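Progress against Task 2.4 (sequence-to-structure conversion) is shown through the following example record, which the project officer requested during the mid-term review.
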Amino acid sequence: MTDAWAQALRFAALPDAVSVEFERQDVIENGTPTTRYILRSMSAAGQAIGDDRDYDLLKAVMTPLEKLADAHNHNNLKLKYDLESGHLTGLPGAG
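Structure tokens generated for the chain above:
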């Protein structure tokens, strides 16, 4: 399971990123349950790198992450993957 997350997060990271963050949030918006996904590639300075990928490319990198989160019912999930060390934090049951 951790390997699948690591592979999907590496694939989603922008060039020059040292880490990538992915969140799944279950929220109520205007009385409607909504799932929100957030993806951030982070620079060595700890700043988010602007993501200007077109919709099709962004969807291609988000779909595997969304499927992993949905398949294992990870609600309100916040992951961080260090691209240099390969260390993944925030995954329930990953140790």
